[in-house]
Amino acid sequence: MTVVSSLRVGLSATTTEPVLTGGRMDGIGVYTKALMEHLPQAGVDVQPLSFAPPGDAGRLAHSRALPLSFPLAVLGDFILPSSVHLSTHTALGKSAAPLDLFHATDYRIVRMDCPVVATLHDAVPVSHPEWVRPRLRKLKNWLQIKAAQKAQHVIAVSHFSVRELVEYFGVNENNISVVHHGVRAEWHERPSAEDRDATLAQYQLRAGYFLFVGTLQPRKNVERLLAAYLTLPPVLRSARQLVIVGSQGWRSEELVRQIKAAQQNGENVVWLDKLTDNRQLHHLYGGAGAFIFPSLHEGFGLPLLEAFASGVAVACANATSLPEVAAGAALEFDPLSVGEIAAAMTTLARDDAVRARCIAAGERRALELTWEEAARRTAAVYHQVLSR
């Protein structure tokens, strides 16, 4: 069925552009790309726009460059009168139809020549400054708070995030709508055994391993996951590898040292820090015996949905948004307790009934959260804002 586009929306595409991200797409990039693909079916004419340094403007893959880089746009926001706005027309061309609104899918929020809707995924830089880089931290946090308040309406990705955005960013709760993330349809498809086994063989993996996916940084709590794994009985560690998929982030030097020390001691610990191929990542989920997500803080926690849709039993932290996302489909544990993490890992490895129950519940949960539904709900927010 063809949907007639009734809204013309500029969508921030900065986090999806390889030249601007180094080819690595984080959770915000996945979110942005999914909206780019699914909003047209919800009646939205999407115009991808990116903040890019002048030298990169001509190298963008699937978006147009906004007339200023983000630092210059922010500077202009503070030194120019409030009646001056960043022109989207300059990026789209004077002959193009004007935008109904602009959707900032990350924290790059400035005054535009149209209403601005912003998705704010969490308030970590302000709520937990110890987890972010200290360089210019106070200035960056102040700028981020000011930026959040420039949006006419805010989309939060979980009900947990609403509380943080109100408390730490000073956003009016009446101007916040919750739209959960989704999971791509192909995650529900099971890769062929041949393709999966080829990927596992490439990385010297044996099916049935414990899997973690995420950037190595303090809030992901991988140190306790590794410690929990190392407390498991030797026979269990011998049978099941711990596979950590994620690039090295800030303040992860000690964790990397611990991972390498475990490997040198003959432990079954595998760290894949260079994997960026989504097809191979899908294979790795498919080969896992259990997905363990001990994060201390998540605005949403997209890897949970990917694991659910892939038919993997999940154990996750009972913190922040994760119980909301899991909705009872995962074993939950205290992320500060190495013993509880280890107990959940042992249960999913040895209790076939619990594992089967978690797999079935996870698959049902993943079917409830789709990008098609997220796009429909996002389009409804646009209409709500424009009807005021």
TrEMBL record:
UniProt signal peptide: none
Domain Glycosyl transferase family per the UniProt entry, residue ranges: 209-364
Entry-linked Gene3D superfamilies: Glycogen Phosphorylase B
Keywords carried by this UniProt record: Transferase
InterPro entries in UniProt: Glyco_trans_1, Glyco_trans_4-like_N
SUPFAM superfamilies: UDP-Glycosyltransferase/glycogen phosphorylase
Residues annotated as domain Glycosyltransferase subfamily 4-like N-terminal: 26-186
The keyword Transferase appears for this protein: yes
Keyword Protein biosynthesis carried by entry: no
Protein name listed in UniProt: Glycosyltransferase family 4 protein
Organism listed in the record: Duganella dendranthematis
Lineage: Bacteria, Pseudomonadati, Pseudomonadota, Betaproteobacteria, Burkholderiales
